[in-house]
Amino acid sequence: MANDESTYASRPRRMRWFVRWPLRWAAFFVVVFFVCFPYPAQFLRHVQHVSDYDAMIDPDHALMGQWEGELRTQLASEVNGKHKKKRKDASEPIDAATFDLNKHWRPRQVQKKVERFIYDRVPYAWDWDLWGSADYMPTVEEMYAKSKTDAEGKLREDCDGRAVLAASLLRRLGYESKLVTDLRHVWVTTPAGELMGPGRGKTMVSTDQGNKVDIWQTLSNVPVSLSYGVAVFPLWRELIILLAAFLLLMPRDPRKLRLFVGLQFMLLGLLLVRGGYLDPSSLSQSVRVWPVYVGLAVILEGMLITALAARRRVISADAQS
User: Fold this and answer.
1) Which of 164, 184, 213 corresponds to the end of one domain?
2) How confident is the model at residue 13 (pLDDT cuts 50, 70, 90)?
3) Global confidence as pTM
4) Does the N-terminal or the C-terminal CB of the chain have fewer CB atoms within 10 Å?
């Protein structure tokens, strides 16, 4: 009996569960944050930017002036080409700098030209490749400065950056434009229609008074957005998060077989969530939502198995003592 007491006394004392588990969760969220957003200052700028979409639209930037000139030249050239055979007099062709867009083009036509203009000049690139973070909405100036460091001198962005540029150029041309999101995609809306690949139900729309949020639509869009985000995010980063959860849940004296099963369940759940999106390269493609729920359930089951991998052994040891 004395031997048992000395063995029990030699064990290191464990922190109470109500201290231990909050610390584990705090450590887990720190890992998640720095895997997704390695640069805290940049993250704070991102939060500031997405808190007011309307303030991100910058029609007065020098880049917009340059692009307005290019687009006007293109549109004027098309009008001149169309009417060249119809003009029988010796009148001068339309001047790109001064011609009235609305006289020769309907608003919806101009919007489509702006959309194609942005797609042609701004190749798509993920935020983690450009900015190192899971998500970042840059200003026009930040995008312009970033293009100076590009090997080909190109301005590259994902959907939110492209939408900011399109909305800015439209306002530069004199058209009303707003930014819209459905959590996984950002596009542009105008009185004449939407452009830059309209997504699902709108969760947030920019207004002159700030962002207008639809709570119920936001909750409805979460599964689809989660599936898409997990599917396109670098797998190695997600594995870091998964490994962190596994190590933080792993007991001191685990049963190895249960531990292995728990890890397998967590990996399987991650793959199910990643596979929930049919085609990550196309924002217009339909999305299967059920793998998200199944994948999350499997991940949680794996976490539970991992956390309880040594519970019976601990209870048995305590009973014998």
Assistant:
1) 213
2) low
3) 0.83
4) N
